[in-house]
Q: What sequence folds into this?
């Protein structure tokens, strides 16, 4: 007999979000808060007794994450169907990249139709991130689906929604890292100790862009993490690169990656707070990259984050040799493109410089955006040309 799942009632006045196919149902949209349902449980969403969606329950502000706009059970076949679509898309996207790049995002949560699930492939080694308890609750079914589709040698499971977590779990294998290839550059990935799944694959295209404008330039890479932008600048013929990060582990990883690819390069690492460094550095750089971690994790911290982006970009503009290039980013999902651009506009006024936007930057095609769920468009960036105030 089919297993029974709890039905939760949506207030009829909130049906518009379902019609717009947004994947989150907020707690205020429910007719009443369900009782005795565990976080992560599979539920059906009903309007006047008619089931309109299936997905994961959560007792917080996002009460439900929708997987299907119909009545479906959480069987391995369902997860395999959804994950399979995402993998098939990546196979089509990667056709012309495999000689230079062997690491991609195979599945991107809400953008691919399974909220909270991320799968990254590092040269065939798979790292999963479960961003809420619903994904963890169906760990067996999802892992079974992934193995049926890809037959990986390594499958490592991380749970970043947990505040305290020493290690993830190996579903398959026991490797903690590997060497990958991105745009022809060798990089070491550690998916146990590293941030996110081990590397920020979403900056691949932007790193390649930097390589195209770095010839004979002096480049400053702020918040360097493992040195991806530093490597790209050196690949493009930069005369000198300085990498700055507050993390000693990041500095060590950057040093190692540069040594492997460009042992004779003029490269310097500095372990320091980026804002403090920018306040005292001379204007010696033709190009500066500002790729900070997310300044806002939620709506409550959005205003402070916008002000932080303003201060950071003003310091970057002042530290830049003019004319020069500034590549600046925000990965805070709650700070949209308009807000970020306004913060950069205010920074230009503070720094008293003239600015031209050369290109809007974002995430690559293996990190797609769901048109009906704009929160999946999280990475915002600008390539700017900065000249003296006149």
A:
């Amino acid at each position: 007999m089919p297993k029974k799942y709890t039905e939760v009632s949506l207030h009829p006045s909130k049906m518009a979000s379902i019609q717009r196919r947004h994947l989150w149902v907020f707690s205020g949209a429910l007719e009443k808060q369900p009782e005795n349902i565990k976080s992560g449980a599979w539920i059906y969403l009903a309007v006047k007794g008619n089931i309109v969606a299936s997905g994961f329950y959560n007792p917080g502000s996002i009460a439900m994450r929708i997987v299907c706009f119909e009545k479906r059970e959480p069987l391995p076949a369902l997860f395999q169907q959804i994950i399979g679509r995402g993998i098939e898309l990546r196979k089509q996207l990667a056709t012309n990249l495999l000689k230079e790049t062997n690491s991609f995002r195979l599945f991107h949560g809400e953008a691919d139709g399974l909220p909270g699930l991320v799968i990254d492939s590092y040269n065939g080694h798979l790292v999963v991130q479960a961003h809420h308890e619903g994904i963890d609750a169906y760990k067996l079914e999802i892992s079974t689906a992934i193995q049926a589709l890809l037959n990986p040698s390594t499958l490592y499971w991380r749970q970043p929604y947990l505040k305290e977590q020493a290690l993830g779990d190996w579903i398959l294998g026991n490797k903690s890292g590997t060497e990958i290839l991105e745009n022809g550059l060798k990089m070491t990935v550690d998916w146990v100790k590293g941030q996110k799944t081990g590397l920020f694959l979403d900056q691949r295209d932007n790193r390649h862009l930097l390589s195209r404008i770095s010839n004979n330039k002096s480049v400053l890479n702020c918040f360097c993490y493992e040195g991806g932008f530093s490597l790209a600048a050196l690949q493009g013929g930069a005369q000198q690169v300085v990498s700055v990060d507050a993390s000693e582990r990041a500095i060590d990883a950057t040093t190692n990656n540069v040594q492997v690819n460009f042992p004779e390069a003029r490269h310097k690492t500095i372990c320091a707070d980026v804002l403090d460094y920018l306040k005292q550095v001379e204007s010696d750089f033709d190009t500066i990259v500002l790729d900070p971690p997310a300044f806002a994790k939620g709506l409550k911290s959005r205003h402070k984050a916008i002000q932080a982006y303003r201060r950071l970009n003003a310091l970057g503009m002042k530290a830049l040799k003019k004319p020069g290039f500034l590549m600046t980013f925000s990965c805070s999902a709650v700070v949209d493109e308009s807000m970020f651009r306004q913060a950069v506009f205010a920074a230009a006024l503070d720094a008293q410089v003239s600015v031209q936007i050369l290109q809007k930057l974002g995430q690559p095609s293996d990190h797609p955006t769901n048109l009906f769920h704009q929160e999946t468009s999280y990475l915002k960036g600008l390539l700017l040309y900065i000249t003296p105030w006149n």
Observations:
- The mean pLDDT is 94.
